[in-house]
Design brief:
This protein has helices spanning 8-20, 34-44, 66-79, 94-110, 118-127, 147-167, 176-179, 182-189, 222-225, and strands at 57-62, 136-143, 171-175, 195-204. α2 (34-44) packs across α6. It has a four-stranded antiparallel beta sheet, sandwiched between helices. It has a domain at 23-90 and 128-213: NADH Oxidase (3-Layer(aba) Sandwich). It starts with 7 loop residues before the first helix and ends in a 6-residue tail after the last helix. By secondary structure, the chain is α+β, with helices and mostly antiparallel strands. Flavin mononucleotide (FMN) is lined by residues 22-23, 25, 103, 128, 158, 173-177, 199, 217. Flavin mononucleotide binds at residues 22-23, 25, 103, 128, 158, 173-177, 199, 217.
């Protein structure tokens, strides 16, 4: 039987990434160099998936192609309601509603938008469709035929992208908001009809001075999340 040697340094390195990464919502204009992008996406290919099906396909939009994509999405958002491929949550209740509210408040507080400032809230919401100024955005799609299993695989892929981005000194954020307007994404990027648009991941260099990057979210105590954990 083969065993993997324990490597405390590796665990510490991974712990550092898991503990310090955050959703970056303001980027500098500086593009990420090609070698770093290739490393990021090459390593993310190691993501495990059901039967190794590797459900994800990625459209990476960069540089001058970002603005027209963004304009298209903003126009779509202002024109009417969302049309997601992946079903929206039915409702957030109890602890899920609480956590959602807490993270929303932290975001608006960081950028000084009051609760009753509807215009400010709309402006901040629309930042999603500017990809928060990121020079790169990855659109993640999954085969419709794989249903929730494919979407789950894409979730693992997205988590790896986010952690890898941090480890490479980059900022990144998953954006379910982009998936809400799957029709516009599909049309703009020519996403095949047999694939679901899952979400986006904006990638770039974080703007360290922007207040939106200053807040951090909390996590539930492990004892409340894992049943059967030894004391
Ligand atoms: C699948 C997924 C979709 C998300 N979609 C959005 C989004 O559309 N807009 C946004 O501002 N944040 C989005 N987020 C970021 C979450 O709000 C964030 O991960 C959560 O509050 C935890 O904070 P942290 O990422 O800073 O640790 C998304 C995160 C995930 C994992």
């Amino acid at each position: 039987m083969t065993t993997t040697a324990t490597t405390p340094d590796l665990t510490e390195a991974l712990a550092t990434v898991l503990e310090r990464r955050y959703s970056c919502r303001a980027f500098t204009d500086e593009p990420v160099d090609g070698a770093t992008l290739r490393r990021l996406f090459t390593l993310a290919q190691r993501t495990p998936s059901w039967c190794n099906s590797q459900a994800w396909q990625v459209h990476l939009v960069s540089g001058d192609d970002v603005a027209p994509f963004s304009e298209r999405l903003v126009a779509r958002v202002m024109a009417g309601g969302p049309t997601p491929d992946v079903t929206n949550p039915e409702k957030y209740e109890g602890v899920y509603a609480d956590r959602r509210r807490t993270c929303g408040h932290a975001l608006y507080e960081a950028v000084g938008i009051a609760r009753d400032d509807q215009e400010g809230r709309l402006r901040q919401m629309l930042e999603n469709f500017r990809f928060f100024g990121a020079p790169h955005v990855a659109i993640i799609t999954s085969p419709k035929a794989l249903g929730p299993y494919g979407v789950m695989d894409c979730g693992g892929y997205v988590a790896n992208l986010l952690n890898l981005a941090d480890s490479l000194g980059l900022g990144a954020i998953a954006q379910g908001a982009i998936g809400m307007y799957a029709d516009a994404v599909r049309e703009h990027l020519d996403v095949p009809a047999d694939r679901d648009v899952v979400c986006a991941v904006a990638i770039g260099h974080p703007d360290p001075d922007h207040p939106v990057n200053s807040f951090r979210t909390e996590r539930e105590d492990v004892a409340n999340a894992v049943t059967g954990l030894p004391a």
